[in-house]
Amino acid sequence: MNKHQKGIITDIICIIFTIFLLLTSIKYHLRGGDGYHIYTGLITSFICFIPFILRRTKVMAFPFWFTMSILFAVFFHGYGSLRSLYDRVIWYDIITHIVSSITVGLCTFYALMVVEKYDNKISFGKNGIALFIILISLTLSIYWEVFELLMDVIYETTMQYSPCDTIGDMVSNSIGGLFVALYMRWFLGTHPDYDVAEEFELHPKLVNFASQYGGQSD
Amino acid sequence: MIVSGIYMFLKFISLYTLGYPVFNHELQGSAFYEERMEVNTLMMLPPAVATFASVVFALVLRRWVKKTELSHRAEVRADE
After folding, report:
1. Nearest CB to A138: which of B2, B33, B36?
2. CA atoms within 13 A on the CB side of A54
3. Which of A34, A128, A172, B33 would you call most buried, defined as having the most Cβ atoms within 10 angstroms of its Cβ?
4. How many CA atoms lie within 13 A of B6 on its CB side?
5. Are A182 and B24 contacting, i.e. CB atoms less than 8 angstroms apart?
6. Which of A142, A165, A170, A175 to mutate to test the interface with B (most CBs of B within 10 A)?
7. How much is the pLDDT for A217?
8. Mutation test of the interface with chain A: which of B44, B49, B69, choosing the one with the most A Cβ atoms within 10 A?
9. Contact A141/A173 with Cβ under 8 angstroms?
C-alpha cells in the first residue's frame, strides 16, 4: 500500500468516525442527555475530522499510524463518555489511557524531531529522544490528573473516582509512554536518515517558518 | 514533575497502609463526596503545587538562560 492509498483510507476512517460520533451525540441529546457529554461528543467528532482537513488543505499529512492513534484515542473517549462506558466497564479507563498516552508519546516524538531538525543548537540523540518521550509523557499524565482534581474541586464532578483509579491511570500512561519510547528508540536505530518534514509532507510555508524560528538560513 | 509522580505512588501505599479508603468501591456515591475529595486531595496536593511551580520555574529558567546567552554574546563581541 503506497502513501496515497494510505491517505485515502485515513480520510475515509476520519469521516466514518466523525459521522458516527456526531450521530451518537445527536441520539444522546434526543434521549435527554446532559450538556457535558454532548459537548464532549461534538468536540471529539470535530477532532476526528482535523487530520482530514489538514491533509486536504495540504497543510500537512499525518502519518498513517499516528492518525490512527489520534482517531482511536479521541473516538474511545467521545464514545465512552456518550455511552457511559467509563462507569459501566471497569477496564475501559485503562484502554483509553493507554491509547491516549501512545498518542501523546507520538506527538512528543514528532515535536522533538521537528525541534532537532530545525534548531541548530539542539541535538537530542536517539537515547535522548526516548528518554524525553518518557519524561514528557509522564509529566503530561500528571498534568491530566491535576486537571481532573481541579475539575472535581471547581465543578464538583467525578473525574477522579479514587486514589486507586488515579494510580491505575498513571500506570496505564507509563505503559503507553514506555512502549512509544522503546519503539522509537528501535525505529531511529533502524532509520538513521529519518526526515520528519518529509514524513508529514509539510507545507513549504510551514517548513520556511520552522527554519526561520530554529535559526536555519538554508 | 517526575518526582511528584513518584510521590503519588508512595502516597498511595501510605494511604492504603494507614487504612484510608483508596478503592473505587469504597468511595462510590454522592454520600462519599467529602471523603473522596479528602483522600484525592491528600494524594494530589503536592503534584498540583508542582504543576504550577514548574511553570513558574520554567519561565524563570528561560529568562535566566536568555540573559546568560546575551551576556555570553556580549563577552564574545568584546573579545573580538
Report:
1. B2
2. 18
3. A172
4. 4
5. no
6. A142
7. 46
8. B44
9. yes
Which residue, A76, A79, A80, is CA-closest to A98? A76
The answer to whether A59 touches A75, Cβ cutoff 8 Å, is no
CB under 8 Å to B28, separation ≥6 — which residues?
A: A161
Model ipTM?
0.81
What is the total residue count of chain A? 218
Please state whether the predicted TM-score (pTM) of the whole model is above 0.80. yes
Residues of B in contact with A167 (CB under 8 A): 8-9, 12
CA distance A35 to A29: 8
Chain centroid offset of residue A174 CA = 15
* A149-181 residues labelled b (16+ CB within 10 A) or e (exposed): beebeeeeebbbbbbbbbbbbbebbbebbbbbb
Contact B5 A153 (CB under 8 A): no
CB contact under 8 A, A156 and B33: yes
d(CA A13, CA A154): 37
Average pLDDT for runs of 10 along chain B of length 80: 87 92 81 85 91 91 85 72
Task: Provide, as residue numbers in chain B, all residues whose Cβ is less than 8 Å from the Cβ of A165.
Answer: 24
Q: Nine-digit cell at A72?
A: 482511536
Does an H or E element contain A117, and which? helix A92-118
CA A28 distance to own-chain centroid: 25
Sign of CA dihedral A93, A99, A105, A110: negative
Measured distance CA(B5)–CA(A132) in Å, rounded: 15
Task: Spell out the residues 6+ positions from residue A106 whose beta carbon is closer than 8 angstroms to its own.
Answer: A66, A69, A180
The shortest CB-CB distance from A162 to any of B11, B27, B51 is to B27
Candidate from A142, A158, A164 with C-beta closest to B5: A142
